[in-house]
Amino acid sequence: MIKYKFEGxxxxxxAKNGSLEAxxxxxAYNVLKDQNITVVNLEPEKVSMLNFFEExxxxxxxxxxxxxxxxxxxxxxxGTMELQAALETLKNSTVESLEKKLLDGLFSAIQxxxxxxxxxxxHKKIFADEIIQSVKIASESGNSEIIYAQLAExxxxxxxxQKKISSAMYYPIVVLIAAIVAAIVMINxxxxxxxxxxxxxxxxxxxxTLVLLRGGxxxxxxxxxxxxxxxxxxxxxxxxYHEVAEVRYFLAWxxxxxxxFREVELRNFFGNMKFLIDIGKIPNEAINLYSNSxxxxxxxxxxxxxxxxxxxxxxxxxxxxxxxxKIPVLYLNLIMVGEESGNLTKMLRQCETMADFEVDxxxxxxxxxxxxxxxxxxxxxxxxxxxAIVLPILNITTLF
Length: 400
Hints:
Layout: E1 2-9, E2 15-22, H1 25-34, E3 38-44, H2 49-61, H3 64-78, H4 83-93, H5 97-111, H6 116-121, H7 129-141, H8 144-200, H9 207-221, H10 223-243, H11 245-257, H12 259-278, H13 283-293, H14 297-311, H15 316-323, H16 329-341, H17 344-395
Antiparallel strand pairs: 1-2, 1-3
Helix pairs in contact: 3-4, 3-8, 4-5, 7-8, 7-13, 8-9, 8-17, 9-17, 12-13, 12-17, 13-14, 14-15, 15-16, 16-17
């Protein structure tokens, strides 16, 4: 039996949450359904280490590229067949065992009457809250074909940004690795020659040379211990990140301070707001839906503040200005014009386009900046090594 935790509401719209035991996800859902509980979230309370690593492996393997293709295919199929038939087609067309297992689980859930968004919520490490929320809106609005296509486009865009950032990092990383290898070779093979010579003459090496030598000795003598310490540190850092909300909030705030990530978040916000308002949601409802789906805890909290301000009668532009730091004034002015003219969705679309342009401009300049900073750091490392070698040579004349 597996213990599941759930969130939902009863027939009187009273919030319900708790836990129950069932053989699998489908049976847990059906138990709650029999109790007249509408399930909002249902997931295993405790998972085995095998399932834990399996989910992370799938998250690594099924990246935004796979997700974009998945929802693109669902979008195309939604126009001609039911969701259950579409999932069965995708399940039968894949040959990867873990991918097939995932699709088989989703197909079985839909077959047993579980809504698609709830089925996806059992794999939150793979399907982010934004994806689950979009799928829920698709089910409720009946616009599955359009929403899945838009979701696929956003995921594809996110994947492209990730690849461009990774590509920009290749050169500086290679340069830094080369500098580190050169440092290890010089510290372990070149500098000891000076140490032996200076010791035989009864003299002391320059401080910088001595520091590098002792640092190299420590690294070589305790190499395995250092690696073990690093692995343990990474392991506990991952646990702390998942268990401590304050840490995730702080990291989300740091991410918001970086322009490229901030513009990506704003682009997604403007695009989603435009779509939600287009399908009939008022701004207050649209903000609430997007804040619930955002994976950035900082943005989620700030948008909840924006929602309260809008609910109390403030305009969207004024609420964003008051709650959300570092949002460009140009976006606020466009939203204000949209609210005053009655063309809010048009202005949101304009904001989305401008945010897209900003992201493209940052990505275009990123490789050159990464190259400069990478070369600068490598130069500092090599410069320190050269200084540590040259200084003892210059001081040799003082020994005679």
